[in-house]
Amino acid sequence: EIFDQKGDVVITYSNSKNEAKELSMSVLVNVTTETPEEPEVTFDLQCLEITSTSAILDVTPSDDNIGYYYDVCTLEDFESVNGDVGVIVNEYLQYLQAHYPDFTMEQILGAMLSKGHDRDTVYGLPAATQMCFYAIAIDEEGLPASEAEVMEFTTLEGGDPADELPGVAAHLLRHPQGRLHRRSHEFPLCR
Fold first, then answer.
1. Is 4 helix (H, G, I), strand (E, B) or coil?
2. Which end of the chain is more exposed for a tag (fewer CB within 10 A), N or C?
């Protein structure tokens, strides 16, 4: 940040005869300050045990105190927003705010964000499809606070659905843009 400071300066001094003298002048000072940058949060992503309809998502952030969101989307959805994961997360937040109007942003973020290492199994993925697994830091206002880390993977060819969903019903949320969110989040809906 650069700013200018302008002001009048009066200098009082004594000459060789010990007489007080004054010198008045106008001074312009340019001051440059640097705002220290916070270290960038990064994520170590691992996608494990990929099947035709499921995968284990494993995330380790570089800072365990940062709240972050992770999920998967199809490569097609990812490319439809030009790789801007912030758009996907914002759409999801809008969806949640519209469907859970009694909850504050703090409550919604508390339910959907992770801190530290996290791991989740996602079900209901489309078979033989290129997917993007992503993680991004989110601030207290629900805005992206880091660059997204993205890992691509492809689900396997289809098989017997009984082999793919071991007693777990797929939980899919669809929001207006048609993107699916596969991770379920716990909201205290029953009061």
1. strand
2. C
Backbone angles phi and psi of 60, in degrees to 5? -130, 115
Which residue has better confidence, 168 or 158?
A: 158
pTM of the model: 0.69
Rounded Cα distance between 58 and 70, Å, is 9
**CA terminus-to-terminus distance, the chain:** 50
- With beta carbons less than 8 A apart as the criterion, state whether 72 and 55 touch: yes
Pairing of strands 149-154, 180-181: unpaired
Confidence label for 15 from pLDDT (cuts 50, 70 and 90): confident
pLDDT at position 158, please?
A: 80
Confidence of residue 167 (pLDDT cuts 50, 70, 90): very low
Q: What angle do CA 88, 76, 117 make, to 5 degrees?
A: 50
Which tokens in the block code for residue 132?
Answer: 């993007």
Structure tokens at 21: 């003298």
Please, are residues 23 and 33 in contact by the beta-carbon 8 Å criterion? no
Report CA-CA distances (Å) from 108 to 44, 69, 144, 162, 188.
Answer: 25, 12, 15, 33, 10
* C-beta of residue 56 within 8 angstroms of C-beta of residue 49: yes
